[in-house]
Structure formats: structure tokens, C-alpha cells
Model the fold of this input.
Amino acid sequence: MTTAFTHRNLPRLLLQARESVMAHTRPRLREHALSDQQWRVLRVLGEHGVVETGKVAREAFIIGPSLTGVLARMERDGLISRARDPADQRRSVVEATDKGMQLVGALSQTIEAHYAWMEKTLGKQSLAQLYELLDKLIELEQP
Done:
């Protein structure tokens, strides 16, 4: 027995779109021995500087137990440093090292060039509309 769905499979399409975009980025990450998760952490730190660990987890979409391992490997590789939050010793903060920030700088050029290509190919208005629709969808589905 099959079920006839009226709407297309939106979660699958979103995953497929993510994988299509990441197919361009992933080879550059691998050249620097970075996983997707490590890149998401570095991107958050590149955008925000010193960040509380919980915010890193939320912004990079990495659950706590996984983030612990990711941060440990990144610290071992000299990409980040961790410390206690001076304002609240119960919390820890993360910051990209100089080596980590150099990677952010190098990779951001490649990624921004890809985004510029998408903007040129899709059109500035269409890409802006895509961002706007995704923002609206995210907001709509918030609890």
C-alpha cells in the first residue's frame, strides 16, 4: 500500500540542497583536514570571537556530547583554545587561535566566491528571496 502525498518532501529537499552546496565546500575543508562540524565551529568563532560553549553548540547545530569531542580534537590540533568564562566560572568559552583564524580567512574566500557565483547564476534577487524564505520557514517552525 502506498500513500499519496500532496506536497513534496521538504526535509529531503532541504538536505539535498545542503549537500549540493557542501559538495563544493567539502573538498576545501578536507584539504585542511577539517570536518563539516569543525568548520561550523570555526565559522561561528570567526563571526563572533570568544563564544560560550552552549552558544557554539546552538549556532553550529552540534549537540553537546558531540561538541565536546569536536572541541577536544580542535584544541589538540591548535585551532581553538578553551577557558573558563571570567564572568561565570561554571561556563566555558571557546576562541579560535591564530591558526584557526587563518583557516577561517582562507576558507571564507573560497566560500564567498562560491556564494558570489550562486548570486550571479540565480540572480541577486532570487538568492535574497531564498534567504528570506528560509528565515521565514525557520521562524515559522520555532516552538
User: Anything to note?
Assistant: The beta strands are 51-52, 80-85, 88-96. The first strand starts at residue 51 and ends at 52. Helices lie at 10-31, 36-48, 53-60, 64-76, 98-122, 124-140. The chain has a mean pLDDT of 94.
